[in-house]
Specification:
With 457 residues, this protein is mainly α. The chain has 24 helices and two strands.
């Protein structure tokens, strides 16, 4: 039995495995690309390490790919064998409980509950803190993120090695709760304490997005590239934020340059990368901008993911890509599978397929077909529960924009304007580029007469 860098007991036997485990946790906290290599080294040296196997399984589940459930299940088998052999502390065993809940019952909410048990006993455990934060993000549980962070933050004193990363998570949770000033302060402190805390840096970028300050956001990100340069695919997401800021300012050449050179540089099939790209292309097309052939490679990947069914957030972005490239049969397959999963029920993800998944998916299909009245009705019906799809306010904003634009194109000017007002209120009352452009369209439509629809650009 040894102690890790945070003073927590770990069931490891060798100095090398302990060093690799410490490196694993720090890399995970920083979204480091080296996380899997460090963990692989730990498990190669000590495959009976129950905590390492449990964490491996949870990492794979967070990737949101159905075929990786088998890998997670094998990690669970090894973790449980080690636990039965007495090779796990109570804290480590609760990580195994978290993995079992997700693998066996597809209930990440139960996995979060197991991690919260860890944090009740050892609030200073940053691995449980960050994993719980990540799973809640997938579930769209913003309130839970904030409550959890604020319960454990007192344990992260100035001498805690992970204080910066905890502040970065707190910053993001504050931003999602609309506490923008506190979020910016916490995010800046996080980066000062942990210069590689890409999550804290990105939380501040979210603040600039949600307060309609694209120029301030660009100033914040420019020159801080080292904070996300060594990240895993999360680095593409930070570039995505920068592209959104350029889009808000109408700097379209800069948007395409970032899309081609950074956001889709690797052409990966990770759902988070597809989500970045599909939502950005959708935003561009809503502004009447021709995106060329960029939908094609996203649709090629998405057409192979129609039966996945791990996350509705992923499915909705696959659907954007399929509709964007007019892949009718693949679109139909994905919609049918969402409906099947919604009827199945009994799991966290099936519940989200049902609500908000079905209505949102039907609305996106109708929008792609030019049936804006149906699109508006369906998207508007899903709007109150859309947070359950997961992701952030900034990520879900593509669906908000599509809803408002559907209303404008269908002639529901008053209802669309009310949504626009609500969107602006939630964004600190400030008018961003999207809002300004739609207000101009509304004014022009009202000048043309009552119930005048706004054509697609």
């Amino acid at each position: 039995m040894r102690e890790d860098q945070f003073g927590l007991p770990v069931s490891l036997n060798s100095d090398a495995a302990e060093a690799d485990w410490n490196a694993t946790v720090l890399a995970f906290l920083a979204h480091g690309a080296t996380t899997p290599q460090h963990l692989a080294a730990v498990l190669q040296a000590e495959p009976e390490f129950a905590l390492g196997q449990a964490v491996k399984g949870l990492f794979y589940l967070l990737l949101g790919r159905r075929e990786l459930y088998a890998t997670a299940a094998e990690a669970l088998r090894l973790a449980e064998a080690a636990r039965r052999g007495g090779g796990a502390t109570r804290r480590e065993a609760r990580y195994v409980d978290a993995l079992r809940a997700w693998v066996a019952d597809e209930m990440p909410t139960a996995a979060v509950a197991a991690l919260e048990q860890v944090l009740r006993d050892t609030p200073q455990d940053p691995l449980a803190m960050k994993l719980g934060h990540a799973i809640r993000f997938v579930l769209g549980d913003g309130a839970g993120m904030l409550h959890s962070l604020e319960r454990v933050l007192p344990a992260y004193g100035h001498d805690h090695p992970a204080r910066g990363y905890a502040l970065g998570c707190h910053a993001f949770a504050l931003e999602e709760a609309g506490e923008y000033r506190r979020a910016e302060t916490a995010g800046r402190q996080a980066l000062w304490l942990a210069p590689d805390d890409a999550w804290g840096l990105h939380a501040v970028a979210h603040v600039y997005d949600m307060t309609g300050d694209a120029r301030g956001g660009l100033n914040w990100l420019t020159g801080r590239e080292p904070a996300w340069a060594r990240c895993n695919n999360f680095r593409f997401h930070v570039w995505w934020h920068k592209a959104l800021m350029h889009l808000d300012l109408g700097q379209i050449d800069a948007v395409f340059a970032l899309y081609d050179a950074e956001i889709r540089a690797d052409r990966s099939d990770d759902y988070r990368d597809i989500s970045n790209a599909a939502s950005l292309l959708s935003r561009l097309e809503l502004e009447g901008i021709d995106v060329g052939h960029r939908w094609q490679e996203l649709a090629d990947i998405s057409s192979a993911r129609t039966e996945d069914g791990c996350l509705i957030f992923a499915d909705l972005h696959y659907l954007l890509a399929l509709i964007g490239d007019d892949r009718g049969p693949a679109t139909a397959r994905l919609l049918a599978r969402i409906e099947r999963d919604a009827r199945r029920g009994g799991t966290d993800m099936a519940a989200r397929m049902a609500d908000p998944g079905q209505a949102t998916a039907a609305g996106l299909r109708a929008f792609g077909a030019g049936d804006y009245a149906t699109a508006f009705a369906r998207l508007a019906s899903a709007r109150p529960t859309l947070q359950r799809a997961g992701g952030s306010h900034a990520q879900r904003d593509v669906f908000e924009r599509l809803t408002i634009d559907a209303g404008l194109r269908a002639g529901h000017i008053g209802a669309a304007e009310a949504m626009l007002d609500d969107r602006q209120t939630r964004r600190a009352g400030r008018e961003d580029g999207y809002t300004a452009a739609r207000r101009a369209l509304i004014a022009a439509a009202r000048g043309a007469g009552p119930d005048h629809s706004i054509p697609a650009q």
